[in-house]
Amino acid sequence: MSLIEVQDLAVYYPLRAGFWNRIVDTVQAVDGISFQIESGESFGLVGESGSGKSTTGKTIVGLETATRGQILYQGQAVTQAKQRRQLNYNREVQMIFQDSLSSLNPQKRIGEIIAEPLRNFSQLSQEEEKLRVLQLLETVGLSATALYKYPHQFSGGQRQRIGIARAVATHPKLIIADEPVSALDLSVQAQVLNFMKKIQQELQISYLFISHDLGVVRHMCQKIGIMHRGRLVEVGTREDIYQHPQHIYTQRLLAAIPEINVAQRAAQQERRRKIERIYQEQQAQYYDPEGRAFDLQPLTSTHWVALPTTKIQQLGN
Ligand SMILES: Nc1ncnc2c1ncn2[C@@H]1O[C@H](COP(=O)(O)OP(=O)(O)OP(=O)(O)O)[C@@H](O)[C@H]1O
Ligand SMILES: [Mg+2]
What we know:
Elements: E1 4-17, E2 22-37, E3 42-46, H1 53-61, E4 68-73, E5 76-77, H2 81-86, H3 89-92, E6 93-96, H4 100-103, H5 110-121, H6 126-139, H7 156-168, E7 174-178, H8 186-203, E8 206-211, H9 214-220, E9 223-228, E10 231-237, H10 238-243, H11 248-255, H12 265-281, H13 283-286, E11 296-298, E12 304-306, H14 309-316
Parallel strand pairs: 3-8, 3-9, 6-7, 7-8
Antiparallel strand pairs: 1-2, 1-4, 4-5, 9-10, 10-12, 11-12
Helix pairs in contact: 5-6, 5-7, 7-8, 11-12
The structure holds adenosine-5'-triphosphate and magnesium ion.
Magnesium ion (MG) binds near residues 53, 54 and 178.
């Protein structure tokens, strides 16, 4: 049984306008996606801005409401708030955000910020609580002096680690990390990512790792889902996605990764142009007349692609 299973999830936002604030339209931020995350695994969700990644993450933790579909946690539905409460879900599934300066309360000291989830979810004495907070600070590589400081007194990378300490305080089984390193310098990014990997092994956590950066996801995730306009266009192992991408949109994202090797740059430019041409000319093979990606179909036991059945058969031959 998967740790988490998302089944045909759709999230539509009402778009309001005018003096009466009437609903004039809906934004189909997520439009029918399915995937699973196994225990201890990292699942990367990748896609361009506005493709519905954050909405997916927020709906899984319960910050947004599903318009359609189901979320199962260890086989049990957690789509409704009542179900989440009964299953300890709010304790076991935590989220960390891109911008820790706005997600950490600026008026509270670090000690209190980290103690907050402990107070909500466990009954510890003051002594025990302080010990646990100190232990958490140590886990994320910060000293005890951090206890009495405020968020603005830390660097971006340190703040991200404080966010992680708060998220792991309640022994979560799943952490949803929404662009956790996008706001950081490259050198600090690597530090925080390696640190996230380390605590994953120590604490047996699964990640839903949200990023627009295919390089970061390759470093972090065994399984990857590629999102485009609220739909999943391809899901597979790291190897499936990076070595054998089948959807034109995945190929396009991969071709956009900057080439470090100077000798390879011309070849990459050429590849980019070719993919761009296919993308422009062969839309109908990859999207339905409304521009919606097709349903995912299995290509192998691990690799799924959003293509019409006829095209899948061609690929199989
Ligand atoms: N609260 C909201 N109300 C209305 N529309 C929203 C809301 N939140 C997101 N959207 C819209 O839903 C779509 C998906 O947004 P989402 O934030 O999930 O994308 P994303 O993939 O996380 O993008 P980014 O990489 O820029 O963070 C976008 O078109 C966005 O404008
Ligand atoms: Mg986002």
